[in-house]
Design brief:
heterodimer, A: about 170 residues, mainly alpha, Four Helix Bundle (Hemerythrin (Met), subunit A), 2 domains, B: about 450 residues, two-stranded antiparallel sheet, two-stranded antiparallel ribbon, globular
């Protein structure tokens, strides 16, 4: 009963926060709403018995990424953005299409049938602890994608250097 | 804890390419002249082309597979890397973006595309896609002080991130429905359960994500702006690499994983194919800039290649693969000619080219004929194969539509030819025939002509 109540709280508030993120004109407000959103999604991970992912969501997204966002925003002059229109062009058509897509999503997801359970049931995870199970998977079954992900990070760093250095 | 060490033979080409690309980053720091660094890329690509047939097998629990299918696409990617590097040497000097990182990022993008072609797991597929996409974003933005290049990169980045999110949502739903990321296990599970609305939703999302990569209508909005704004050598690279990688992933996911849903996805691909051919060919008619025109042409060619997927047979898949190889050569050739012309890339800049540079005009003529699909060029063979595959699968009406749009495409391809041969050259445009670009042109022309006359030498 309490779990249900919490789930509905998150299910209703998170889309609202997500909408606030994109509908505020002031970028700092956007980032702050995103912070609220991240904290809520971290809590949602906790409900799914994924405490490691909840911690990562808090530390990485709420802690690191959003702080970075705020740094960038503070370095830029925002006068033009604040003066401009929030919605441009044919927004009624876009809104109608989006609502159609959302309805399609609702219809599709409401017919969701979960597949067969894998080896990692809630009990198995509890016995092994979340972090350990995730770490083991990352370094055995998903070793290859894990290594490629490190290449992606490398290329992101290289890209930032190439695009930012002044050497013409 | 005992972790068995995985067999690395099938991933050897990717490992070598990533290692060399990383080494190039270090060498670049001390290298005075950046040109030879590109030579390293060509050398390693040639070596990998030789190595590919010896790496067959599967590893990482069957999630990474090196077979004839992945080999074919890897040949396209590595060939694309070689041709792009050849076309880049002096071009990027002229554009003042002569960074050693340029070659390294090209190699990383190729590596990502190769991983996509080989992956039989949704997560591996996705990380490969991101590696390729992120590298291509960086390449697009390489002309840092050019407004167009920046705009193109931002557009590509934003829409690319958006399409990745859509693709991931589709993957997540598919994972929830089948509790597996292994494409074979997904296929086995779906074969027992059959379609349901949630599965169809994930299907639509995955198709949308891949359609963005191959630049099919209605997910093509980024293509003209990005192709026009990016440095031409990068346009050349991404008009072949990421597109072929998208097709490789489509073939793997839909034939191997979602084969049970074939009637459903065929409908979506038919719509994408018709729209791509229609919008690509009709909008190309009114373009004034040759890079934009070739961008719309690339959209329409995605539509033709999709016919092979629509056919849903082994013949269709083979025809699609052959088509992509031929498309790679003729498109690279056309963009190499664009690189040689030091101008604003207007169609009018080609006026009277035949008088001043008859050889270059003749080469462009061959590529334009090939892109239209006029025999005896390779373009005809490619189109003929996909059309026959679709006819054999019972889609004669679709092929008729494709032929009509093919005929329309003749107008804008031959417009270039007309400008070159029949119009007086009002403005003299500087033509810079760099040796390496000319080498790439020569390879492309030979390939287009030889495949057109004796298809069996290169095609499956």
């Amino acid at each position: 009963m309490i779990l249900q109540a919490f789930f509905w709280y998150f299910a209703i508030t998170m889309p609202i926060f997500a909408f606030l993120v994109i509908s505020r004109k002031n970028p700092v407000h956007c980032v702050l709403w995103m912070l609220v959103f991240s904290i809520h999604s971290a809590a949602l991970f906790l409900f799914l018995n994924a405490e490691f992912l909840a911690a990562v969501e808090l530390i990485l997204y709420a802690g690191a990424v959003l702080v970075l966002f705020i740094f960038v925003i503070m370095m830029m002059s925002m006068k033009e953005e604040l003066a401009g229109e929030l919605v441009i062009g044919e927004w009624p058509i876009a809104a109608a299409l989006s609502i159609g897509v959302v309805l399609m999503f609702f219809f599709g997801v409401s017919n969701f049938a979960k597949g067969p359970s894998g080896p990692y049931t809630i009990e198995a995870i509890k016995a092994e602890t979340n972090t350990r199970a995730l770490g083991k998977l990352l370094f055995t079954e998903y070793l290859f994608p894990f290594e490629v992900a490190s290449l992606i990070l490398l290329i992101a760093v290289v890209g930032a250097m190439v695009l930012a250095k002044r050497k013409d | 804890m005992n972790i068995p060490f995985p067999d690395l033979t099938p991933v050897l080409p990717e490992i070598i390419l990533a290692a060399v690309a990383s080494l190039v980053l270090l060498v670049e720091l001390v290298a005075v002249r950046k040109g030879p660094i590109g030579g390293i890329g060509i050398a390693v690509a040639l070596f990998l082309l030789y190595l590919l047939p010896y790496t067959h097998g599967e590893t990482f629990g069957g999630t990474f597979v090196s077979d004839a299918y992945s080999d074919w696409f890897k040949i396209i990617f590595l060939g694309n890397l070689i041709m792009t590097t050849l076309a880049s040497f002096q071009y990027i000097q002229r554009q003042h973006q002569d960074f050693g990182e340029y070659y390294s990022v090209l190699m990383f993008a190729t590596c990502g595309a190769m991983i996509m072609a080989s992956s039989r797991d949704l997560i591996t597929l996705y990380v490969g896609l991101e590696l390729m996409a992120l590298s291509t974003f960086i390449l697009t933005a390489m002309k840092r002080h050019d407004w167009w290049s920046n705009e193109a990169a931002i557009k590509y980045f934003m829409l690319g991130a958006f399409s990745s999110a859509i693709l991931l949502y589709g993957f997540a739903l598919l994972y929830g429905l089948t509790t597996s990321t292994d494409i074979r296990q997904i296929g086995a599970h779906i074969a027992t359960t059959g379609p349901n609305p949630a599965l169809l939703l994930s299907l639509v999302l995955i198709i949308a994500g891949f359609a963005f990569k191959i630049g099919a209508v209605p997910f093509h909005m980024w293509v003209p702006d990005v192709y026009e704004g990016a440095p031409t050598s990068v346009t050349l690279f991404m008009s072949v690499g990421p597109k072929a990688a998208g097709f490789a992933a489509i073939g793997r996911v839909f034939y191997e994983g979602l084969g049970a849903l074939q009637p459903d996805w065929t409908t979506f691909f038919i719509i994408l194919s018709i729209l791509s051919m229609a919008v690509g060919n009709i909008v190309a008619l009114v373009q004034k800039n040759i890079k934009r025109m070739l961008a719309y042409s690339a959209i329409s060619h995605a539509g033709y290649a999709l016919l092979g997927i629509v056919a849903g047979t082994t013949e269709g898949l083979t025809a699609m693969m052959n088509y992509l190889l031929i498309y790679a050569f003729m498109n690279i050739g056309a963009f190499c000619v664009v690189i040689t012309m030091d101008c604003r890339n207007d169609l009018d800049d080609y006026n009277g080219l035949a008088k001043n540079h008859p050889l270059l005009a003749a080469v462009m003529l061959i590529f334009m004929f090939s892109l239209t699909g006029i025999p005896p060029t390779a373009g005809f063979i490619g189109k003929f194969n996909v059309f026959m595959a679709a006819v054999h699968a019972g889609y004669t009406w679709l092929v008729l539509i494709a032929i009509i749009f093919s005929a329309i495409s003749a107008f804008f391809y031959l417009h270039v030819v007309m400008n070159m041969y029949m119009k007086p050259g009002a403005v003299r445009v500087r033509v810079e025939g760099f040796p390496t670009v000319l080498a790439a042109l020569l390879i492309a022309v030979l390939a287009v002509c030889v495949i057109g006359v004796v298809p069996s030498v290169a095609l499956r």
